[in-house]
From TrEMBL:
The lineage of its organism: Eukaryota, Amoebozoa, Evosea, Eumycetozoa, Dictyostelia. This is S1-like domain-containing protein. It comes from Dictyostelium discoideum. GO terms for cellular component: nucleus. PANTHER family: RNA-BINDING PROTEIN EIF1AD-RELATED (PTHR21641:SF0), TRANSLATION INITIATION FACTOR-RELATED (PTHR21641). Transmembrane segments: none annotated. Keywords: Initiation factor, Protein biosynthesis, RNA-binding. Residues 153-183 have a biased composition (Acidic residues). Belongs to the EIF1AD family.
Length: 183
């Protein structure tokens, strides 16, 4: 591992963070492609930020993660990217910032609201005629899967061998009926 990579990894995993005056904690709300992300300030405003190449293939960021960014650069009005990511926060970093009271209260409230939202209870009931697709009407059909016909019958499910035997018997009966008609 090169010295630069080792330095970035050690800094992100083993460092205690202290915010400087020109830095802010933000939440990643969208990945824009490449090394550009859309981040949200605690007050709700959003801005585009760039992830430096030093983090490439070392640290990853996804929606909902938190990061520390530099202060917005007002001088570059032609570019939509206004700031750069200084540090990608891990769970341990977030806990440390909460303890040191540097964590924005707005993000704390968002996390509590997300945890308090009740999840839909799972009901183990048989689907009704209105809900034959199991509530997946919004999803399209997967063209990579074979389409199986569904036969509803009052009879109990039969094994494959029994079904084959019944089909053979039906074919034999049809052949016998045809022979009788021919005679």
């Amino acid at each position: 591992m090169s010295h630069a990579r080792k330095h970035v990894t050690n800094q992100s995993l083993n460092s205690s963070l202290k915010l400087e005056n020109d830095q802010n904690i933000v939440k990643v709300i969208d990945m824009r492609g490449g090394n550009v992300v859309e981040v949200q300030y605690p007050n709700g405003s959003t801005v585009l930020a760039i992830i430096p190449s030093k983090f490439k293939n070392i640290l990853w960021i996804k929606k909902g993660n938190y990061a520390i960014i530099d202060k917005e650069d007002e001088s570059s009005k032609s570019s939509q990217v206004k700031c750069s990511v200084v540090h990608i926060l891990s769970k341990e970093n977030v806990k440390g910032l909460v303890k040191s009271r540097d964590w924005p209260k707005e993000f704390d409230l968002e996390d509590k609201n997300q945890r308090q939202q009740p999840q839909k209870p799972l009901l183990l009931t048989a689907p009704t005629s209105d809900d034959e697709d199991g509530g997946l009407s919004d999803l399209g059909v997967n063209p990579n899967r074979k389409k199986f016909g569904r036969v509803d019958s009052d009879e109990e499910d039969l094994s494959d061998e029994e079904e084959e035997e019944e089909e053979e018997e039906e074919e034999e009966e049809e052949e016998e009926e045809e022979e009788e008609e021919d005679n």
